[in-house]
Amino acid sequence: MKKGTSRSKRDNRSNDKPVVSAERGSVLIVGYEEPVRNIVTSMVTSGGHHCLTVGGGVEVLALLEAGEKCDVILTDLVNDQLGGIGILERTRQRFPEIQVVFMTSVQRIGYAFEGVRQGAYDYLFLPFEHGQLLFLLGRAIEHRRLKLQNAAYQEKLGPVVSSKNQKPARILIQDDEEPIREIAASMLTCSRHACRGIESPREALDILRSGEPVDLVLCGLLETLEADFFKQVSKQFPDIPMVVLSACHGWEFFQPALRDGAYDYLNKPFEREQLELKVLRALEYRRLRLENQACARLMM
């Protein structure tokens, strides 16, 4: 672990400029409590998104059926008579391209994951940071755009060779703590991923530059920041997503890594379902990007 003075220097830098996604879209906010709905609306519009608000799930469906365009639904997990899960189920049936993100004040992973298991993009525990919300919305909107783009290519070109049924994902796990590497590898090999653990950012860069196939990098935060690891990987290997692991709880600690090119982040300690969500979402992001690039070349 790096010395406290170095870490402090990096932490201060995280406040220089917020992480703001280039993706903009339309967000439908569903909330039972009007004060919360108003606060969230203010946060969302500050990120440049178009915003609509409704009080409950029945209104959501009425708006969508009437032709209202929406990229993301941001809803309470506990809502009116329809409920957050009900909104998700009905939306997936009629408008499967819309991403659903749950908000919940119930600080239990299993509770929040009920929505993810049924197809929600992600969840946020209340209270959350302004930047956290904008970052997650940007990722959800980008994910929707990539999926729609992919579907349009498939319609024009027919089925394209997909990575879905190919070899297990090859994941590089970098962390200076061996127990963390072993725990993460154990969790992911249970899901049939192929994992390799290493200690330092330098080792990770050497492996990537050697040409060894890698689909995803999980990496510790502090050492990788000191080595400008995220900048180097995002520049040299833009199609390999990076997910940051850190015991430094607080959105501000992750901002430098995300700003420098990391795809997502996860707090230690984490549960298997949390890690799997981050990994599967990053791998799908990689797959969609690569397939879309291949389709674009075919159409030239």
Structural description of this entry:
It is a single chain. The chain folds into 2 domains: 26-157, Response regulator (Rossmann fold), CATH 3.40.50.2300; 170-298, Response regulator (Rossmann fold), CATH 3.40.50.2300. 51% of the residues lie in helices and 16% in strands. It has 12 helices and 10 strands. The protein has helices at residues 4-13, 34-46, 57-65, 83-94, 109-117, 130-157, 178-189, 201-210, 222-226, 229-236, 251-259, 272-298; strands at 26-30, 50-54, 72-76, 99-104, 122-125, 170-174, 194-198, 216-220, 242-246, 264-267. Strands 2-1-3-4-5 form a 5-stranded parallel β-sheet, with helices on both faces. Helix 3 (57-65) packs parallel to helix 4 (83-94) and helix 6 (130-157) crosses helix 12. The termini are far apart.
**Uncertain residue segments:** 1-15
Shape field: globular
Q: Predict the CATH topology of the largest domain.
A: Rossmann fold
**What is the terminal separation in angstroms?**
49 Å
Helix-strand topology string: HEHEHEHEHEHEHEHEHHEHEH
Total individual domains: 2
Main-sheet strand order equals 2-1-3-4-5
Radius of gyration: 20 Å
Number of separate helices: 12
Helix content: 40-55%
| Name of the CATH first level of the largest domain | Alpha Beta
Hey, roughly how much beta strand do the residues contain?
15-25%
Q: How many beta-strand segments?
A: 10
